[in-house]
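Incident log entry.

Two folding requests arrived from the same account within the same minute. Monitoring flagged them as a possible duplicate submission, but the sequences differ. Recording both here for audit purposes.

Request one:
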Amino acid sequence: MGDQYPAFKAAAVQASPVFLNREATVDKACQLIQEAGRNGARLVAFPEVFIAGYPYWIWLDSPLKHDKWFSQLFKEAVEIPGPSTDALCRAAKAADIYVVIGVNERIPANMGTMWNTNVIIDRHGTILGKHRKLVPTFAEKMIWSRGDGSGMNVWSMDIGRLGTLACGENSNTLARYALLAQGEQIHVANYPSLGLGSQLGQNTWIHLRAGAHSCEGKVFTLVSTSTVNEEMVKMLGETEEKRQFMTSANAYSAIYGPNGEVLASIEGEEGIIYADVDIELEIPRKQWHDIIGHYNRFDVLSLNLNKDADQPVRFLTNRPSASDAEAAASEAIAQLLEQIQADQHELRKAVDILAQQLGQQQT
C-alpha cells in the first residue's frame, strides 16, 4: 500500500476588513475561521494586511498628506504575539484549522515602523511563525519597512509543508524558488483589491503568478484577496476621481492545483471558496519536472538565502566570545598535555637511574 499523503479541504477568504478597526476586524476574521471550519476546511487563507486594512491613501494623495492615516493605521496595527493574535489562535483551535492571515505588524519598542506580515497559526492555536514582505511595492514604501530572511520559511504541518508570500512578492522568482527549495507543497499568496488593476490587469497578474508557481513547483496555491466596501470608499473617496480609483478594482481569489489548473475561484463579491487538496497528486507531476530535484543543475545554478533577522542594535561586551573561549581552552589543554609529556619523560629518567642504582647494590 505504501505511504499515505495528506488530503484535505482548503479555503480562501475574499472579504473586506472593518477598515482601520483592529478589534472589529479580528472579530470578523474569527467568524470566518469558524465558518471555514464548520464547512470542513483544514486550512484557511486570508487577504494581505486584512487586519486592519490596506493603506489605499498612498495612491490617492501626496505623502505629505499621509500623517493622519499613517498614525491611525499604526494605532490599529498588530503586535505578535498580542491580544489580536491570541484571539485568532483561540478561533483556530476551536475550529481545528490552520490559518494564514495578513496583518499590519508593529513591535512594542518602535513607534513609527510597520511591516506587511503574514501570520501562520496551527490548528492547536499556536503561532508557527510569520513572514514579513521583503520589499514593499512602489508607494507602499511610505508605510512598511522591508522584511528579512528570517521569515522565508516553509512550515511543516500534518496537512503538508506550507509557505507564503504577499502580493508582488509572488512575481519574485528567487523568493518563490527559495520556498520550493525548502520543500513547499502548499503556497498561500494574498493580495489587496487595487484600483491600478483596471489599467494594468491585476486579476490577470494574480492568475498568471499563481498558475505559474503551481505549475513550476507542482504545488497547490491558495490566493486570497480583499474587497473594497462602501465604508472604505466614504472614508477615503472625497473626490470623484478617488472614488473611481477605490471602486474600479474587481477582487479575485482562487485555488490552483499542481498543474496550474483553477480548482475554485470567486470574483468581485465577498465569500469563501473551497477546494480539495491531495498532496499525492504532486508526485506524478514532479516525475516530469522537479526543479528542486532531478530537473535542475545545482552545479551550474545556485541560490543563497540569508535567514538572519535584522536587528536595530547588536550589543557587544568585553567578555570573550564563545569561539575565543574555546580557543583559549584548547591552548590551555595543549600546554597541559605538553607539560604532562615532559613530566613523564623526567619520571622515566628517574626510574632508570633508580633501577641502575639498585642493580649496582645487588652486585
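Request two (distinct sequence, not a duplicate):
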Amino acid sequence: MGFNCSSYDFTSPDSTSTFLYCPSLPAAIFFAVLFGLSTITHIFQAFYHHKWRLSWVIALGAAWETTAFGLRAAATQNPVSDALGIPSSILIYLSPLLINAYAYMVLGRMVWYYLQDKRVASIQAKRLTVIFVWLDIIAFLVQLTGASMASFRDTDSNSTEQEKIDSANAQKLGLNIYMGGIGFQLFWILVFSGFAWRFRVKAVMERDQGCGVHRDSSWKQILVILYFTLLMITIRIIFRLVEFSGGSFNTKLTTTESYFYALEATPMGIACITWNIFHPGRFLVGPDSEFPRLTRKEKKQIKAEKKRLKEEKKYAKKEDKQRHREWKKESKRMERHGADELEMGPLRGPQTYRTDDIGPV
C-alpha cells in the first residue's frame, strides 16, 4: 500500500520529504526502465564497436540515471523519508555532466579521424578532449558540492528555530553554488559548440580542396547528433537555472512534478537513446578512429628518455655552477694581482750604464 499524499503538505516548512510534491511511481519506473535499457545497450555497443575507451562515460551516465530513478521509484512508497530521496536527487543533478563529457570526447575523435592535421583552431584533437573533459570535471565538483548542500535540510523536530534557519541558509548557499556550476557548464558548452562549428568549416574546406583524409561524409551525421544532444543538455540546464533563479525551492517549477519529467528526465533520456541509435562506432571505424595508445614497452622507453634528459639537465646545471665558481675564483685572483701591482708600482727592467757617463742609460 502506497503513501497517502492527500493528507500531507509537501511544501510545508515542517515537511521531512525531499520532494515538494507527491512523486509519481509509474513515471519513476518508466524512466528507470528507459535509462536501464539505454545503459545495457551502451555497454553492448561499446564492446561490439570496440569503443569502450569512448563509451564508458555515457554508459556510466545512463547507469547513474537508472539508479536515480530506481531510488526515486522506491522513495515514492515513503516520500516523507529522505533516505532514498537525497541520493536520487544528487544523481539526477550530476548524471548529465557525464553525458556532456561524452559529447566532448566524440568531437575529439572526429577531429582525429576526419581532419588532415588532426587539430581544430590550432588545438590538437587529444588536447581538445582533455581540456573540455577537465572543464567538465570542474563543473562536476562544483555541482556536487552545491547539490550535496542543497539536498540536505534539517528535518529534526527537536531542532531549535535558529538551527532550522542555519540549515535553510546552508541549503540556499548550496543552491547558489549549484547554479554557478551549471552556469559554468553552459558557458563551456557554448564555447565547445564554436569548436564543433570550426570543425565543420574545416572538414568542408578540406573536402572541397581535395586534401586531407578522404573518408565519406559521415561526419555530418555525427555532428548533427552532437549538436542535438548538446541542445537537450542545454534545455535541461536552462530549466534548472530558471527553476532555482528565485533562490527558493517553493516555486511553480519546483512544486510541479510534470515540469521535472518534461524538462529534466525527458531531454536526458532522448540524449542517451539518440546516441544508442546513432552510435559513433558505426561511423568511426578503423585504427584512426581512436587516439593512439602506447604499449608498455613504449611507455618504458619514454620514461627512460625523460629520466636521461633529466639527468643530463642536472649534470649540465652542475657543470655551470662549477664553471661559475671557477670564474669567480679567477676574477678574485686577478683583482688581487691588480691591487698588488698598483701598490708596488710598475716593475722596471734591468738598468745598464755607460762607461763615459754617470747614471743609467
